[in-house]
Amino acid sequence: MQTLLGAIINGLALGMAYALIAVGYSMVFGVLRLINFSHGSVYAFGAYMVYFFVSLKVGLFPAILIAIVLSGLLALTIDKVALEPLRRKKSIPIATLITTIGMSFIIQNTLSIDYIFGSEKHGFPSLNLFAPIVIGNITIQSSQIIMLVVAVVLLLILTFVVQKTKIGLAMRAVQQNTKAAHMVGVNVNFVISFTFFIGGACAAIAGALIAGYYGIISPSMGSTIGLKAFSAAVVGGIGMLHGAVVGGLVVGVAECLAAQYLGSNVRDPMAFVILILILIIKPTGFFGKKGITKV
Amino acid sequence: MLKIDNLVVSYGPINALKGISLEVKQGEIVTLIGSNGAGKSTTLSAITGLVRAQSGSIRFLGEDITHAAPHRIISRGISISPEGREVFPALTVHENLRLGAYTRKDKAGIEQAYDRVYDLFPRLKERMGQIAGTLSGGEQQMLAIGRALMSAPRLLLLDEPSMGLAPNLVLMIFELIESINKQGTTILLIEQNANMALSVADRAFVLETGKIAFSGDARTLLQDDRVRSAYLGGKGAQSRRG
Ligand SMILES: Nc1ncnc2c1ncn2[C@@H]1O[C@H](COP(=O)(O)OP(=O)(O)OP(=O)(O)O)[C@@H](O)[C@H]1O
Ligand SMILES: [Mg+2]
User: What total of structural domains would you count in chain A?
Assistant: First the structure.
């Protein structure tokens, strides 16, 4: 019973961090109908930037803030440099998709260049900032509590931005009818850049939270987690914020339960098992509606 | 106010506009008529910056807007009620209207604009909270026109505003066009219903496969034999659908 509860708590914390990555896939998909596979590498970049600036002794929180901004800018730059030119040329969607995969490799390999960070793992400052909470024989690390609280707060803020602000209205407008958004005077390119920036910034925060929990980073850290978060976004219904959250939680809890009861080797495949099941049972995900294709 | 010179627009190999020139003066209602595929909607897309001009120029209030981005053009005071309505399907009627005022910053002015639109279209007021995608075709058309009015444009582009409306509403739309114009908005109107369009317009341009075939005073064109036979059913019934 207590191991079950422990696994669920682990899963919820991790799942909220996945949700933070998943919203990046989801929002970009919303405005561009594109799966941005470079997103996982932005997550890794975010964690590396925290590591780098901490090593420059600027302090953990300033380092995280700088990493957030730089990762947002990286995501935005990927779009401006590699994706927007393709959109302007109206190239086929698969070309853009492959470009995002290519960008992901470029970033990951740049991180692992010897005189940059190198391919080996590095220790990451722990986010266990206060004593763990012990209930019975369940121990909840403070980094898990921080992960959960920060992710929940950020996702609430994000929901507020999308639902209640002018830029959020513009995002929803672009999502539903890009042509009409142009026609009412929305600066569509700005909305797209903004979306990439927010996605990249959230990925960096997730990177700091997850690296701070495991205490370790490596250049390829974004590839598996990126795919898991992508699965989470699809499981919840891609394009929808609350879908990303529920998808993230389902994936997080499922993999912690699997690790607990079936062995740690079963952990990583769980996200994809759920993804495949969902694609068979309800291809649009939990909250997905039919007709989320461009009007 | 709006001056188009030698505008050429192509979609790949298709030459949609082959060098058209036209002018709309402050305070006028100008209509652009022509058969299906003549290039009427393309002209409006070029004005709003949605399609690129290959050559030629478009000037609005003395400024060259030929290669300006759509949001810049819209914020200078042009707005469009497009062909096919193009509402935001999952947003409410009210949110759609809010987006019509996207380029405005004056809160009070936006509130007035809502009142004006809801006054003109009581149907939209009743359905304020309804999701636009679930409106009837005619209601969506009203929403498209209402949305275009929200920015209090100086130049209003209307692409077949009477499309899909019941006959009494068509009359109402034409009266509306005249009254919006009297309140100071300059209008460029595209219509399949050439008879009606010519009777409200001051001047008219007739497009034929990407070229201006005739232009002139609307009342005169209404009597012109060539125009009558081609667009006013002089040679028998003409298709009214776009
Ligand atoms: N996006 C596009 N791609 C390719 N060709 C296009 C595109 N849009 C329009 N065309 C072509 O350009 C020409 C002009 O089209 P346009 O829509 O301007 O005509 P129109 O005068 O508005 O016709 P209608 O009365 O049917 O609305 C047509 O031959 C049309 O097929
Ligand atoms: Mg047309």
Answer: 1
Q: Which of residues 169-228 of A touch B (CB under 8 A)?
A: 169-170, 172-173, 176-177, 179-189
Identity (one letter) of the amino acid at B157?
Answer: L
Q: Do A183 and B69 touch (CB under 8 A)?
A: no
Instruction: Provide the domain limits for residue B92.
Output: 85-152
Query: Which of A243, A274, A241, A280 lies closest to A257, judged by CA?
Result: A274
ipTM of the complex: 0.92
Residue B209 backbone zone (phi > 0: left; psi -120 to 50: alpha; other: beta): left
Residue A295 has pLDDT above 70, yes or no: no
Whether residue B117 has its Cβ less than 6 Å from ligand 1:
no
Residue B207: inside a domain = yes
Q: Cα(A155)–Cα(A150) distance, rounded to whole angstroms?
A: 9
Q: What is the helix (H) or strand (E) element at residue A231, kind and residue range?
A: helix A221-236
pLDDT in tens, B103-152: 999 999 999 999 999 999 999 999 999 999 999 999 999 999 999 999 99
Do B178 and B168 meet the contact criterion of CB atoms below 8 Å apart?
no
Distance CA A155, CA A152 (A): 5
pTM assigned to the model: 0.92
B75 touches chain A (CB under 8 A): yes
Question: In angstroms, rounded to a whole number, what is the distance separating the alpha carbons of residues A218 and B99?
Answer: 45
Token pair, residue B154, equals: 């100086």
Find tokens 């009427």 and name the residue.
B40
Per-residue model confidence as pLDDT tens digits over A165-179: 999 999 999 999 999
**Whether B161 and B224 share a structural domain:** yes
CB-CB contact of B29 with B178 (8 Å): yes
- Give yes or no for B67 touching A (CB within 8 A): no
B153 touches chain A (CB under 8 A): no
Which helix (H) or strand (E) covers residue A265, if one does?
none
| Residue A187 with chain B: CB contacts under 8 Å | 69, 71
List the domain range (segments joined by +) for residue A191. 2-114+143-281
Rounded Cα distance, B52 and A89, in Å: 13
